[in-house]
Amino acid sequence: MIELLNPVQLNNWNLQSKVVMAPMTRSFADNETGIVGKDVVEYYRRRAANGVGLIITEGINPSPRGKGTFGIPGLFTEKQINAWKKVTEAVHLEGGTIVAQLWHVGRLTHHELTGGYAPQAPSKIKADGLVHRLRKPYGTPEQMSFHDIQSVINQYALAARNAKTAGFDGVEVHGAHGYLIDQFNSNVTNKREDKYGGNLYQRLTFMKEILHAVVNEVGPQNTIIRFSEIKDDLPTFNWDNPETTIKTFVQVFKEIGLKIIHPSTNDFKDVITNEMTLHQLVRKYWDDTIIGVGNLDIDTANNALQEGTIDLAAFGRPILANPDFVQRIKKNKELTSYNSKVHLRELY
To answer: Which part of the chain is the NADH:flavin oxidoreductase/NADH oxidase N-terminal domain (predicted)?
Structure first.
């Protein structure tokens, strides 16, 4: 049997397979209320019914100011919670496991999306580029005050509590791709001189405090962190010293007591340093669960699982195009190729 298809007990979760549905922005929530509908329920239910082991939702905003494009769902109102309950109930009836990804875009937004408020950021440094789908330049951000920082941490805590109330099995904190948490992590976007700035370890303080807040709500075994070198608005960015950076990130994750981490990259096979890929480098310092991702194919994922480089394998576009992804692998059936003009127009 293909290793990818084996069920696995992961902490409190009984996963149907080692296949993870990667988080993918879909923008099918009501744009004004952030409430998901029946189409979203069915979208996630179908993946669970067809054997996906772990579903990580699209990014969900912990507050209105975290919104970076149209149609993003939230987890900060009672009606949003009740809508997500229908999703989690449907997934659980099919034997699936689902976690909510919490996502605050920070400076990568515009006041037209955030209720008239300026983007938030660690420092008042404007991003280059255009807001996704709005196609207007990113707004000039406000540098977050200490009070702003504590408010956002509290918003993450409340969103994690709401995720638990909604029936989610856990929470993934999106700390990657140049969004708010990653903006604090990087010396390009974080020029602060208080406890949230300085050297790398100090810059990780904001992420650490958010993770502590989430862990206090859902437990360390049910909390995932997604982190990356890649940044949506800085395509040429590279870590100065990948090995030192990974060691520092892992130190923080261990201090918090996390059990599952999700290093993100565009290409799983890319060498990052010393002939090692990102996930190989992370494995050098991390003994617990690693979710692999990065344009994976079946053979690459299977080999990485067998070698022990990763413990779970996340797929995005193949699962978008093939709700029956796991069943097709089991039956050795050809996968439908992803086509953005087809697969982004509606929820399959």
So the answer is: 4-334
